[in-house]
Automatic annotation (TrEMBL):
This is Tetratricopeptide repeat protein. It comes from Paenibacillus lutimineralis. The keyword Protease does not apply. Keywords: TPR repeat. InterPro entries: NDUFAF7_sf, SAM-dependent_MTases_sf, TPR-like_helical_dom_sf, TPR_rpt. The lineage of its organism: Bacteria, Bacillati, Bacillota, Bacilli, Bacillales. TPR repeats lie at residues 472-505.
C-alpha cells in the first residue's frame, strides 16, 4: 500500500463505483468469460422460463381487464451478456403461440451502461429474428441518472407518461452492483458510514479489477440527521430501522429506489418488477450486520437490500412477493406497483408456481450438487434434469461424455428423447463471448447414436463456425456419416481434409484405400 493519506468519501460516492463502471466499459462482453462475472445462475433457461411465465401471466391479466390494444414494454436493467433476454423472449413467444389467446403485444428492451454491450447485442445472431419481428430493442441506460429510454432500433425516445401499459422491469444481479448509501443504526440514531479508501501502489498501471482486489476500505461514522427528517422520502423504512435495529450496518438502495421511480414515470399505469439477486428481504437478516465487504468477481457486488425496496413500495400500495423460505444462492422477488395489484391473479399464481414452490434458487442448488455426480448418473436421470432445466446447453456439455457412455444400453425411446432435446436446446442456444462448441458436442453424441444425417448437420455447423480449430475426429466422423448416407464424394473430401491434418491416420488411409480399390 502507498504511504499516501487515506481519502474519505461518502459511501455512494466512493471510487469503487467508478472502478466498477470502468471495468464493464473496458471488458464489454468479455466480462462474462469464464464466469469472471457470474451469469449462469441468473441467465439459464430455467430462470428465464420462470420470468416468462410471470410476464405471460401479467399479459393475461391486462387482457382480462380490457387493456389489450397498447403494447407492454419489458425493460431489462443491466442485461449483461444478453443470454437471459434471449431465453425469456424465446419462451414468451412459445407460451403466446401455444395459448393462442388474445393478449397485448410486447416489446423487450435490453439496457446497459456500457455502450459496447448494447452494440454487441444489436449484432448477435440469436437476437436477429426478435429484432426483425419488432419484439426487441436496445438502449444505453445509466440507472443512476437517466430519465428516458432512447431506443436504438426504432429510433424512438420513451419519456415521462408515454406508456399506457404498466412497464415490466427485469433486474437481475442489478441492485447489488449500483451505488448505495451505507447507514449505521445505533442507540436509535442514524449515522452514515463514510469509507476511507487506501489505494494500492502503482495504481495508475493497474486494471480496474486489479485495483478492486487490492484496495482497502475502512469506515468512520458521522451523524446523518437528514434521514430522520419527516420530509425524507423514505422516512417510514428509516423509522423502522431506528426502532427495530441496533448496532447494524444497512446498505440503503437510494439509487435503486430512484431508478424504479424514474422508470415508473415512463408509464401512466405503474410497473411490475421481477428481480433476482443476492438480496435480503427479511429484516432479521440485517440485525447486527457488520460493515459490508466487496464480493469480488472481476467487478464487485454487495448484498441487495430488498427489505427497503419492498417496504417502500408496499407503503405506497404495492404487493411484494418474496419466498416465504430462506434463499441459499439467489432471492427472486416480484413487486406489483399499480392500481389494485390484487387483481393480477395470473401474475401472482405464476410466481407461486415457478418461484415459491420450486424456483431458480432450488434449481441452482440441485445443479451445483449434480455437477459432481454426472459420472454416476443414469440416462433417465440426465434426461429428467436436462428437461427440468429447459434443455440447458451448459448441462448438456457437462453430461455429453456420460451420455455417450450410456448409449449402448439406451432404449429407442431414450434415443428419440435425446434427439428431441438436442433440437430444442439448439433452437434457443445463445452463443457467448467465451464460446463452447455446442454443435460439435451435439454432433458427436448423434454420431454415437448412429443418427448420421443429424450428426452430419451439427458437425458441419461446427467446422464452418470455427475453421481454424478443427480437430481430426470431426473430419473422420463426417466421412463416416457421408459414407453411411451414400454421399461418397463428400466422404472422400472429408478424408482428404483429415489426411492434411494427420497424414498417417490409419482409419482414414484404410477408408480411402477401400474406396479407391472398388
Amino acid at each position: 500500500m502507498t504511504d499516501l493519506k487515506q481519502q474519505r468519501y461518502r459511501f455512494s460516492e466512493a471510487p469503487i463505483w467508478d472502478l466498477q463502471r470502468a471495468y464493464y466499459e473496458q471488458k464489454g462482453m468479455k466480462a462474462w468469460n469464464n464466469d469472471q462475472v457470474p451469469q449462469y445462475i441468473t441467465s439459464n433457461p430455467m430462470i428465464a422460463t420462470s420470468y416468462a411465465e410471470m410476464i405471460f401471466g401479467f399479459l393475461q391479466d391486462r387482457a382480462s381487464q380490457g387493456h389489450s390494444s397498447e403494447p407492454v414494454l419489458i425493460v431489462e436493467l443491466g442485461a449483461g451478456a444478453g443470454r437471459l433476454a434471449s431465453h425469456v423472449i424465446h419462451e414468451l413467444c412459445q407460451l403466446r403461440d401455444y395459448a393462442g389467446i388474445p393478449l397485448p403485444s410486447f416489446r423487450y428492451v435490453m439496457t446497459d451502461l456500457a455502450m459496447n454491450n448494447v452494440l454487441a447485442w444489436r449484432e448477435h445472431p440469436a437476437l436477429q429474428s426478435f429484432i426483425a419481428g419488432g419484439l426487441l430493442d436496445f438502449a444505453q441506460f445509466d440507472a443512476v441518472h437517466d430519465t428516458v429510454l432512447n431506443l436504438i432500433v426504432s429510433g424512438t425516445t420513451i419519456s415521462e407518461g408515454d406508456l399506457a401499459q404498466p412497464v415490466i422491469i427485469v433486474a437481475n444481479y442489478f441492485f447489488d452492483g449500483i451505488p448505495q448509501e451505507l447507514l449505521y443504526v445505533g442507540d436509535g440514531h442514524i449515522c452514515e458510514a463514510d469509507v476511507l479508501v487506501e489505494y494500492p501502489e502503482h495504481m495508475d498501471s493497474l486494471q480496474p479489477s486489479e485495483v478492486l482486489h487490492q484496495i482497502s476500505l475502512n469506515y468512520e461514522y458521522r451523524q446523518a440527521p437528514e434521514y430522520e427528517q419527516e420530509a425524507y422520502p423514505y422516512r417510514n423504512v428509516i423509522t423502522m430501522y431506528q426502532e427495530q435495529l441496533e448496532d447494524s450496518h444497512i446498505l440503503f438502495p437510494v439509487a435503486g429506489l430512484s431508478c424504479l421511480e424514474r422508470l415508473n414515470q415512463l408509464s401512466q399505469a405503474g410497473f411490475l418488477l421481477i428481480t433476482a439477486d443476492k438480496g435480503d428481504h427479511l429484516l432479521d437478516n440485517w440485525k447486527f450486520s457488520g460493515p459490508p465487504e466487496l464480493i469480488l468477481h472481476g467487478s464487485f457486488s454487495f448484498t441487495a437490500n430488498y427489505h427497503a425496496i419492498q417496504h417502500v413500495f408496499e407503503n405506497r400500495g404495492a404487493i411484494a412477493l418474496f419466498p416465504p423460505h430462506h434463499y441459499k444462492n439467489i432471492n427472486v422477488g416480484c413487486i406489483l406497483y399499480m392500481d389494485t395489484p390484487i387483481n393480477y391473479s395470473n401474475t401472482r399464481l405464476a410466481y407461486r408456481r415457478f418461484i415459491e414452490r420450486f424456483g431458480p434458487d432450488e434449481f441452482f442448488s440441485i445443479k451445483e450438487w449434480m455437477d459432481n455426480k454426472i459420472d454416476s448418473m443414469g440416462l433417465q436421470q440426465i434426461l429428467s434434469f436436462w428437461r427440468l432445466g429447459g434443455y440447458d446447453a451448459e448441462f448438456f456439455i457437462q453430461s455429453a461424455k456420460q451420455i455417450v457412455r450410456l448409449l449402448p444400453d439406451a432404449s429407442d425411446d431414450e434415443l428419440q428423447d435425446i434427439l428431441r432435446g438436442i433440437h430444442l436446446m439448439w433452437s434457443s442456444y445463445y452463443v457467448m463471448e467465451q464460446r463452447y462448441d455446442l454443435a460439435l458436442d451435439a454432433g458427436l453424441v448423434l454420431f454415437e447414436m448412429e443418427m448420421y444425417e443429424e450428426s452430419k448437420r451439427f458437425l458441419e455447423i461446427s467446422i464452418h463456425e470455427d475453421e481454424e480449430e478443427i480437430v481430426s475426429t470431426v473430419y473422420y466422423c463426417l466421412a463416416i456419416c457421408c459414407f453411411e448416407l451414400e454421399l461418397e464424394e463428400d466422404a472422400l473430401n472429408y478424408i482428404r481434409e483429415l489426411l492434411k491434418l494427420e497424414p498417417d491416420h490409419e482409419e482414414a488411409l484404410a477408408l480411402i484405400h477401400k474406396f479407391e480399390s472398388v
